[in-house]
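To illustrate the input format used throughout this study, we show a single complete record. The first block contains the structure-token representation of the backbone; no residue identities are included at this stage. The design step must infer an amino acid for every position from geometry alone.
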């Protein structure tokens, strides 16, 4: 349960930070697009790391 809370907290914090930085730079984007980007980026990186760990574990067992 704690991992899910950390995930959403990370996504929300990164969304707000990205929104503020883009606003300061004068390149505003829709908040929903930034939010969806961070959800996708986080889930894809987790999936990639999980896949790599499976490959490493498979080679280590042989």
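Output of the design step:
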């Amino acid at each position: 349960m704690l991992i899910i809370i950390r995930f959403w907290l990370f996504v929300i914090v990164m969304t707000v930070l990205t929104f503020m930085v883009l606003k300061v730079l004068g390149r505003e984007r829709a908040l929903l697009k930034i939010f969806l980007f961070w959800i996708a980026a986080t889930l894809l990186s987790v999936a990639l790391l999980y896949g790599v760990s499976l490959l490493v574990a498979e080679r280590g067992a042989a």
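Structural context for interpreting the output: DSSP finds two helices and no strands in the chain. The mean pLDDT is 93.
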